[in-house]
Specification:
Order of helices and strands: HEHEE
Helix content: 40-55%
Structural class: alpha+beta
Oligomer: single chain
Number of strands: 3
Number of domains: 1
Protein name: Defensin-like protein
Mean pLDDT: 79
Keywords: Signal
Largest sheet: 3 strands, antiparallel
Strand content: 15-25%
Strand order of the largest sheet: 1-3-2
Distance between the termini: 47 Å
Length: about 70
């Protein structure tokens, strides 16, 4: 019986937390752009950005042939 009471109590806390975004509050990640290099090769740009800023980073070449890294900041 104590197990059921504990589960119901936990559900109550979670439902209250979701209602006012208390313990379950979500944070939005900001995405930053950074000029990485002035000469861009699409394959090395992607690899270099991931190596510099981590696995969530994305590198791409813009129209000016610059490597732009996008990552969470």
């Amino acid at each position: 019986m104590k197990v059921i009471d504990s589960i119901l109590f936990a559900l109550l806390l979670l439902s209250v937390g979701i209602g006012n975004e208390g313990p379950m509050k979500m944070t939005e990640a900001k995405v930053c752009d950074k000029l990485f290099t002035n000469l861009c090769d699409s394959h090395t740009c992607l690899e270099d950005c991931v190596g510099e800023f981590g696995p969530g980073a994305y590198g791409s070449c813009n129209q000016s042939d610059q490597c732009i890294c996008q990552f969470r900041c």
